[in-house]
Design brief:
The complex is a heterodimer of chains A (158) and B (779).
Chain A: E1 2-7, E2 10-15, H1 22-29, E3 48-51, E4 54-57, E5 70-72, H2 85-92, H3 102-115, H4 121-127, H5 139-157
Parallel strand pairs in A: 1-5
Antiparallel strand pairs in A: 1-2, 3-4, 3-5
Helix pairs in contact in A: 2-5
Chain B: H1 17-21, E1 37-43, E2 49-55, H2 57-60, E3 65-70, E4 100-101, E5 107-113, H3 116-124, E6 127-132, H4 139-142, E7 158-164, H5 167-175, E8 178-189, E9 198-204, E10 209-214, H6 219-230, E11 237-240, H7 256-268, E12 272-275, H8 278-284, E13 288-299, E14 305-317, H9 327-333, E15 343-352, H10 366-384, H11 388-395, E16 404-405, E17 411-412, H12 417-428, H13 430-442, E18 446-455, E19 476-482, E20 488-492, H14 501-513, E21 520-523, H15 541-568, E22 575-578, E23 581-584, E24 587-593, H16 594-601, E25 616-621, E26 630-639, E27 646-656, H17 663-683, E28 714-717, H18 735-751, H19 766-778
Parallel strand pairs in B: 1-12, 10-11, 14-15, 20-21, 27-28
Antiparallel strand pairs in B: 1-5, 2-4, 2-6, 3-5, 7-15, 8-13, 9-10, 9-12, 13-14, 16-17, 18-26, 19-20, 19-25, 22-23, 23-24, 26-27
Helix pairs in contact in B: 6-7, 9-10, 10-11, 10-18, 12-13, 14-15, 15-16, 17-18
């Protein structure tokens, strides 16, 4: 089937098997391997991407269901060499160790910060309930998201 | 040029992160090779069954399928999955089942196709005719007469029985005011690295060279074992551990798929990829813990513990993986914890059951030991109505006693256990919190305070502690190369997968050579690049890998000083490395640029007679002893008596891992460790039903904690350097896990104490707690 969509600002048109999952399209056809597969059952969130701005687990939808949408993956977060505030936050606050869950965490956090520019620790922890991290114990992830939220509020105010 | 700052001890941002936060790191699944095929493994739905027949022909006919094989096709072609730890009964462990399956998730057949979707179509066409057999999943039942036998040739489900007797224990039991007896089960857990396992193998027929990309913690040790399994020379196998998405012990192993996928790549002459699915990960990657212990404690009324005796039953699962029967030994040897308990005896019965093999999981035997020691302290406090903090103080090995020999025959290197306890209790304001607890009780609320002081064994260690069949001792290797342009390449034998040695090792090198951290690159996980190394496990990365690095740096420093000495006409012992120069210690104005010395070493611009060219040093560091990190964790929880829910009010951890190179990374290790420790106490359990069906086969059913299930951690530290190594470090990878399980458990039990609840099996799920409260109120 013909699939038309935009990934990270690039318009694409590909013939895909109707049964292909979106995550496999992103990884194997669009060659964006920053989006990871961790569980195939939509629990771990490693595959999270933004579809039209909302965080979606790309392992549980078909590629063809994303027809006509705008997708952002981790590769689309930085502007050239300038990191997204969330990427900066994860780096500054040591919000990652093995890094496997990180892209999904960042995409989920982007969705949260678009809805809530100043979340509390409890709100952040709640928002991350669909993303598992096995390395960090989450505390530095919470701090990373708080760092980004503060930075994004400041730059908006400026 | 600006003055180069110092890096060791500073909160340095990780050098690994830029690629990982931009999605440009390369994990095994990201490896793309021309002509690459995908393999999927069909796995047994039965815990125990005879395989009557396997029909592969329909699967082989699926368009796009290249090969479909079962275990019988691989007889004499791929050797047994290895167990290197000594045991009385080590079964043959085929890479795909032959004749019989022994656990749910055991590989039965493999399909190789142009992509994973087609490989799945092929698996769906394979017909296996099974004769289900009675299964046994309870290790105590497995030892009973008439239990189904897993490996007929042994006529028993006993793997081995290890005994450490001690007549002094029985004397102490007779002499003590009281002998307290109870049973502890450290339940079976799944390590669940977020990246499942994966293998890519490529065979280059012209060169007879095999390359294996594997998500492993031990690239070299794995290469040695796979070379054996495939009967290839070790110099014909190149192993790459690319970005590895967590290990936690589960990737400290050699798995069937590493040899199987390699065999397929060799025979099909095309690259083959296999990526583990989460269900496979939960059923077919090693589990941890699963030890029962019948504990006897000889104690006096004043809280003094005189002796410990443990009868362990350790569930090994259906086959033995790399170190399966070696793990429980640590639980026995370390079960006296931080305490000067004079007499210890234990025996450990290892048992086959129809389950996945157990092996190392974060802490590997020491979390079980700490749990035993800390339950001991609580039981004694409870028995004689003493404060649990005081019972610990009464029994602690005193600061002045180090190096301290233990009843288990170990020698603890250094420690100050009471200091960490006092610091943790001060932070929590212990007396005030006890008063608040009593006040809350009057309102009908259940608040509990849990204490756990722990010590663990790290940096293993002298090579004699590891089994010879591992083909590598307890040492570690490192090459340091200063390139002609002055940049430094570190090639380490450890294989970090989140621990951050690309940062810590760069900090060390930068300080030692007086250069900027950006001038140092750390390379790991590639057997073609780094010297033979042992890998990353047991908190050994910096503890054993670090001193190896220091040795190589030291060799280069000596050589460069010698060159500088000739050029400056100053004795080498008066020189030091400072701010990109080699300078006189007594007079910094007398210096020579480091780059000038490097150029001389490489024999351009200046040539120094009598000095071997180049700046490349390799070292192998053999530790003289193990290190023993320690600490105290204190938690305050509230139990909701209506729902059984546990809520953390505080979590304080005081950890001592010796000298700290990278404080930010140490925090990260401890926080992640605490999360996994709390997970054992409250949430996680690998559950098989009586017939051997795995009930926790997805992340829907296996409760890896989410962000909102864990507390905010308050971290403090003390610093007691280890005298064992040149860096004074002790290791921190497992500390949090070891402290947190007994801490969280003791807090919940303390909350339930006034109901008369003394003993519950982990995990302390709401249901478990709710039932216990209901039963206690009924009674």
């Amino acid at each position: 089937m013909l699939l038309n969509l935009t990934i990270n600002g690039e318009q694409r048109s590909d013939n895909v098997d109707p049964r292909m999952l979106l995550v496999h399209y992103i990884r194997d056809i669009a060659n964006l391997t920053g989006t990871h597969v961790g569980c195939e059952t939509s629990i771990c969130g490693a595959c999270t991407v933004l579809i039209n701005g909302s965080a979606v687990k790309s392992c549980t939808i078909l590629a063809v269901q994303a027809d006509g949408t705008k997708i952002t993956t981790i590769e689309g977060m930085a502007e050239g060499d300038r990191l997204h505030p969330l990427q900066e936050g994860f780096w500054e606050e040591h919000g990652l160790q093995c890094g496997y869950c990180t892209p999904g965490m960042i995409m989920t956090a982007a969705d949260l910060l678009a809805r809530n520019s100043n979340p509390t620790e409890a709100e952040i922890r709640e928002a991350l309930e669909g993303n598992l991290c096995r390395c960090t114990g989450y505390q530095h992830i919470v701090k990373a998201i708080q760092f980004a939220a503060a930075k994004m509020r400041t730059s908006k105010a400026a | 040029m600006a003055v180069v700052p110092k890096f060791v001890g500073e909160r340095i941002k990780r050098r690994e992160d830029p690629r990982l936060i931009t999605g440009t790191g390369q994990y095994v699944d990201d490896v793309r090779l021309p002509g690459m095929l995908t393999a999927l493994v069909l796995r047994s739905p039965y815990a125990h069954a005879k395989i009557n027949s396997i029909k592969l022909d329909a699967a082989q006919k699926v368009p796009g399928v290249v090969a479909v094989l079962c275990g019988d096709d691989l007889k004499d072609k791929v050797g047994s999955v290895p167990c290197v730890a000594p045991a009385e009964h080590v079964p043959y462990h085929p890479v795909l089942a032959q004749g019989k399956v022994r656990f749910v998730g055991e590989g039965v057949a493999v399909a190789v196709a142009s992509d994973a979707y087609i490989a799945q179509d092929a698996l769906d066409q394979i017909e296996v005719d099974y004769d289900p057999l009675e299964a046994v999943t309870d290790p105590e039942q497995a030892l009973e007469a008439g239990a189904p036998i897993l490996h007929d040739e042994f006529k028993t489900n006993s793997v081995t029985l290890a005994s450490v007797p001690n007549p002094a224990v029985d004397e102490a039991m007779n002499k003590a005011d009281k002998v307290i007896r109870f049973r502890i089960h450290n339940q079976r857990l799944a390590p669940v690295p977020m990246e499942p396992r994966g293998v890519v193998a490529r065979w280059e027929p012209g060169y007879k060279q095999l390359t294996i990309w594997s998500s492993t913690q031990i690239p070299h040790l794995m290469r040695s074992q796979v070379a054996d399994m495939l009967k290839l020379g070790e110099n014909k196998i190149h192993v790459i551990a690319p970005e590895v998405g967590g290990g936690f012990g589960a990737k400290l192993n050699v798995y069937a798929e590493e040899a199987l996928i390699s065999h397929l790549a060799i025979t099909l002459k095309r690259p083959v990829k296999w990526i583990e699915r989460r269900r496979e990960n939960l059923s077919g990657t090693t589990h941890g813990r699963d030890q029962i212990v019948y504990l006897e404690i000889a104690a006096n009324k004043d809280g003094e513990v005189l002796a410990l005796k443990g009868r362990f039953i350790c569930d090994m699962g259906a086959y033995l993986q790399l170190l399966t029967p070696a793990i429980p030994g640590f639980s026995g040897l370390m079960m006296t914890g931080c305490y000067k308990i004079p007499a210890l005896a234990f025996d450990q019965q290892m048992v086959f059951t129809n389950k996945m093999a157990t092996d190392a999981y974060r802490g590997a035997g020491r979390p079980e030991a700490a749990f035993i020691a800390e339950r001991t302290m609580e039981a004694v406090a409870s028995e004689f109505n003493l404060d649990p903090a005081d019972v610990r103080r009464k029994n602690f090995i005193a600061k002045a006693s180090f190096p301290a020999p233990t009843a288990g025959g170990l020698v603890y290197d250094s420690g100050d256990y009471e200091l960490t306890l006092n610091k943790a209790l001060d932070q929590i304001d212990y007396n005030k919190t006890r008063a608040e607890q009593a006040a809350a009780a009057k309102e009908g609320r259940y608040i509990g305070i849990g204490i756990a002081s722990y010590v663990e064994i790290c940096g293993i260690g002298p090579s004699a502690l590891l089994p010879p069949k591992l083909k590598g001792g307890g040492w570690e290797s490192c090459t340091v190369r200063i390139e002609p342009d002055g940049k430094v390449t570190v090639l380490t034998g450890v294989s970090p997968h989140g621990q951050g040695q690309e940062t810590t090792f760069a900090q060390i090198v930068a300080d030692e050579l007086g250069i900027d951290i950006d001038d140092v690159t750390v390379v790991h996980g590639d057997t073609a690049l780094v010297p033979y190394g042992i890998g990353t496990f047991g908190s050994r990365g910096t503890t054993v890998g670090g001193p190896a690095l220091m040795m190589s740096v030291g060799k280069l420093q000596a050589k460069m000083k010698r060159i500088a000495s000739t050029m400056m006409e100053v004795p080498p012992e008066q020189l030091e490395f400072r701010n990109r120069t080699i300078a006189m210690a007594s007079d910094a104005s007398k210096s020579i640029a480091l780059q000038t010395v490097i150029e001389a070493a490489y024999g351009y611009k200046t040539v120094i007679e009598g000095v071997e060219p180049g700046l490349d040093a390799t070292s192998f560091y053999e530790p003289s002893a193990c290190t023993f990190p320690f600490g105290t964790h204190v938690a305050v929880v509230e139990v909701d008596s209506q729902t059984g829910q546990v809520k953390f009010l505080r979590y304080v951890a005081v950890d001592d891992c010796g000298k700290v190179i990278s404080p930010l990374l140490v925090e990260g290790q401890i926080q992640g460790g605490i999360a996994q420790g709390i997970a054992q106490a409250l949430y996680e359990e690998v559950k098989y039903d009586e017939g051997g069906q795995l009930l926790s086969a997805t992340l829907m059913d296996y409760a890896v904690p989410k962000a909102n299930m864990l507390p905010h951690y308050e971290l403090l530290s003390t610093v007691t350097p280890s005298p064992v190594n040149s860096l004074g470090v002790k290791g921190v990878g497992e500390a949090g896990t070891i402290g947190a399980t007994p801490c969280a458990y003791n807090a919940v039990l303390d909350a339930l104490k006034r109901l008369g609840i003394r003993d519950l099996d982990m995990p302390l799920k709401p249901e478990t707690i709710w039932r216990a409260i209901r039963d206690a109120k009924k009674a």
